[in-house]
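call fold(seq) -> tokens
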Amino acid sequence: ENLMITDVRTDCDCTTTEYSSEPVAPNLSGRIKVKIDLHKFFPCDILKKIAVYSNANKRPIVIKIKGKVMY
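ret:
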């Protein structure tokens, strides 16, 4: 069965995503582009979460992006 990404949600307005609504066939890959606007952060550690909804699971798959903002 093809994978269909139905929604991608972020945990704040500083994070945006782009993804295709085209189905992804088994053994192939797709891409979710994530942008984080870091100018709102002081030098600190960050943890951003992105929830990916698809026809593969009833619950979303959560992707975590962890990093350190340095100036």
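The chain is about 0% helix and 50% strand.
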